[in-house]
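Support request, please re-run this one:
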Amino acid sequence: MSEKIGQFVDYLNQGKQAEAGEVFKDALRAKVADSLDAQRAAVASKIFNTEPQSFSDPKPVVTDPGERTDVIMDTEGKPIEFTPNENEQPTPTAEVPTAPVSDESKPTT
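Re-run finished. Output below.
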């Protein structure tokens, strides 16, 4: 970097503004590139060198399947008890439809 500054000053003293401008641009590009590389390394170390965060809810407790299927478990593995109430379930009143019978549907012998 310091050699670029020396070239820049020398070109200005010689009256070569175009060459001085190119040397200045090169020095500035190098300085910006170095600082961008340092910033990239700092950001990457922050992103990839941290402990992972927990983004989801804890997993529910899973009980082993048993032979009894009349017990319902909650997410913590505790059984849920149901108490019967006095509500009666309605009985269906609709008639069951029957298929029409015709001579064509009967088997022939």
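DSSP finds two helices and two strands in the chain. Helices lie at 2-14, 17-48.
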